[in-house]
Amino acid sequence: MVLRYTKYDDLPRIWLLIPIETKVREYHAKLLLSCVAAEKGLGVILGHKGALASNVRFLPRGIIFGNNITTDNEARLARYREMGYTVAAWCEEGIAYRNRQSYRHERVSSGAMAQAAVFFAWGDYHAEDVRRAIALGDRAKVVSSGSPRLDLLRPRFREFYREEAQRIKERHGRIVLVNTNFHRFNHFLGRGTYLEGLKSRGKVPNAEREAFFQQWVAFLGEMYKAFARMLGPLSSALPDHTIVLRPHPSENHDAWKREVKGLPNVKVLHEGGSLPWILASEVVIHNSCATGIEAFGMGVPVVSYRPLTSETYDSSLPNAVSREVFKVQDLVEVVMALVSGELREESESGGEKRRLAQRFFTGLEGKLASEAIVDSLEQLDVRPIPFAVTPVHAIARDLTFRGILPTWALLQRLVRGANPHAAYLHQKFPSLGLSEVQVDLNRLQKISGRFANVGITEICESLFCVTARAG
To answer: Does the structural domain 5-151+364-468 have CATH classification 1.10.1740?
Structure first.
């Protein structure tokens, strides 16, 4: 079902603009949030953050999300407010960070929070860190709502990935999934990129902070090497399994392909989102990675391999909800026992880990985080300005979408030339077309029994309108 703007422009609604930065990490969760919002009568613009930012002057005024509240986002959020938008914000990195002080220093800006009307935290732990880093008068803006990404871990919504997981298993056989999270060392744009980026954003004010970050990168470099050495013994011990190494979206994937050369049953793959791969796997291996939390939430056996440990640089929660091992031989033995069924999670241990996760995250049970977010958004004081106030505005809008936006995008490419980071940006957000979004909407409708009146319209490349029929 495709909805056309002109038929629905007269409906009173708040418009919600949701950017996607890393497709495999965010897209499905933000589509679910969009459907929940549309079901409650809001209009949603969903798409690639670059497409949304480039075209924001042509879009309806309402609530616009900032993907983070870092220092380099202050000017953007201020500009959105000047344009008439109400700013909401969240932080995708809030699911699992290694160092609380460093998170507050790197990821939270009082200036950016001052532009936002509300900030949605993953839970009380995350909310506490955000509040400690912002002005006292802004602390009430922080809401412990949970994240739509957590909604997808629930039994009902994980069925969204069941068919894809089955296709993965048919293609690769029995899978042990190894997720890496070492982009601070093994960055797509080159080793040293992470620290240089911090310096350019003013996050390295003195020699002490520079030493802190240098030691962090060095720690992750040793972790990278330890994971690379571990693959050989794991490969030999599991000849009937495919070991899929899935690097972080910001990592240099070619570096890992060189590491696994000569290991016949090890593949470096980064196809689609992580959740269907987790669901298709018999065991997930990680270190301080959000996928450890996702695997635990989906009921898949998860092991944290910790050949090095650091109170400063380890992320506590992903490791704590996993079965922790510290030596290669122990890792191999535990994984073999898990895939054979000899080793199972004890119910008491699983319950303790669940209670730990609930202390970190809101919305694991009861009301969906998506619903809590929409409920909070509806309480904001927003003056919505629709796509088309009159038929003349509707004609002007259609002309903009069909002619001005494509021409504007072409001119920008000609003036700016080739983006030197184009390959990196493509790795993070390869593409998103109407047919893909429509298929995913159909799957959400099927597994949830909801959103039957929700439809999708393509505005321009990688940017979509999500609305619901009246009545």
So the answer is: no
**Using an 8 Å Cβ cutoff, are 459 and 398 in contact?**
no
What the block records as the tokens of 274 is 């992580």
Domain parsing of the chain, residue ranges: 5-151+364-468, 160-360
Residue 10 CB: number of other CB atoms within 10 A? 10
pLDDT band at 5 (very low <50, low <70, confident <90, very high): very low
Distance of CA 230 to the CA centre of its chain: 27
CATH topology of domain 160-360: Rossmann fold (3.40.50)
Report pTM: 0.87
Give the model's confidence band at 403: pLDDT under 50 very low, under 70 low, under 90 confident, else very high.
low
CA 394 and chain centroid, separation: 34
Express each pLDDT in 73-98 by its tens digit: 999 999 999 999 999 999 999 998 88
Residue for token pair 């409708």: 445
Residue 352 is predicted with a pLDDT of 87
pLDDT digits (tens, 9 = 90+) for 134-168: 999 999 999 999 999 999 999 999 999 999 999 99
Domains 5-151+364-468 and 160-360 share a fold: yes
Would you say residue 466 has pLDDT above 50?
A: yes
